[in-house]
Write a structure and sequence with these properties.
Elements (H helix, E strand, L loop, with lengths): L1 H69 L2 H21 L1 H18 L3
Helix pairs in contact: 1-2, 1-3, 2-3
C-alpha cells in the first residue's frame, strides 16, 4: 500500500513538473515571437524613414532637373507632384490587393509561425 502512495506521489510530482515546464515553454515562445515582431517592426520603421528621405531628395532632384530643362520651376515641381498624385490614386484603388492583405498576412505569419 505504501508503494502505491509513493507511485501516486511520484506521478503527481511529475505531472506538476510537466505543467510547469509546459508553461515556461509557452512563455519563452511568446517572448520569442514578441521580440521577433518588435525587432521586425523597428527595422521596418528605420527602413521606412530612410526610404522617405531618399524619396524626398530624389523627388526634389527630379523636379529640379525637369524645371531646369523646361526653364520653369513650377512645371518641374508640379509634374513631380502630379506623378505622386497619380501614384497615390493607383495605390488607393488597389490598396486591398497590394497593401492590406500582404501586410496582415506577414504579421500573422510572423506571430503564428512554428519554428
Amino acid at each position: 500500500m505504501e508503494e502505491e502512495k509513493s507511485n501516486i506521489n511520484n506521478l503527481v510530482d511529475h505531472a506538476k513538473e510537466y505543467v510547469e515546464t509546459t508553461v515556461d515553454l509557452m512563455k519563452t515562445e511568446a517572448v520569442d515571437r514578441i521580440s521577433t515582431a518588435a525587432s521586425s517592426f523597428a527595422s521596418s520603421i528605420i527602413l521606412g524613414v530612410t526610404g522617405v528621405f531618399f524619396l524626398l531628395f530624389a523627388s526634389v532632384g527630379c523636379a529640379w532637373v525637369i524645371a531646369h530643362s523646361t526653364g520653369s520651376k513650377a512645371i518641374g515641381f508640379f509634374s513631380v507632384a502630379a506623378f505622386y498624385l497619380l501614384l497615390s490614386i493607383i495605390i488607393y484603388v488597389s490598396r486591398e490587393k497590394w497593401i492590406k492583405v500582404p501586410i496582415v498576412n506577414a504579421i500573422l505569419k510572423l506571430l503564428t509561425d512554428d519554428k
